[in-house]
Amino acid sequence: MNETLDINYYKLNPYLLDVLKKSIDELDKLINNYRFNNRNKINKDENLEYILISKLSNDIIIYHLLGRVLKIISNNNLLNKNTNSTDVALDLAKSLLFYFYKIEYQEYIQKEDISYKVYSLSTFINSNYS
Questions:
Q1: Block means of pLDDT (10 residues each) for the chain, length 130 residues?
Q2: Is residue 4 part of a domain?
Q3: What is the DSSP string of 64-84?
Q4: Pairwise CA distance, residues 64 & 68, whole Å
Q5: Angle, helices 58-74/85-112, rounded to nearest 10 degrees
Q6: pTM of this prediction?
């Protein structure tokens, strides 16, 4: 078996998957509480964490979080990039950041009425977030 798979579906326990499904409502509440508690912060426009959480939907954040949890669980007792906490955290951050860029890019393209072929995502990121 390939030990570097992102998610090893053979190791996922149906009971555990049910527990994860039940946690979705709690995660939803936690994200909403975070937004509410940090809505009046002075430098919230400079705080990348707050910007991502405020711009991304709860469903997207939860989808990415649970995906990382499944990676960790399914790679239990293996030492690889899917179980190293630093790698998992960086992977999650990159994933959410890319999704944020994608949303911002799509909004910009529609607002400015520009073609995707003329103005690429990488150009948008370099122009606005570098």
A1: 56 79 92 86 69 88 87 67 66 89 93 88 87
A2: no
A3: HHHHHHHHHHHTTT--STTT-
A4: 6
A5: 150
A6: 0.73
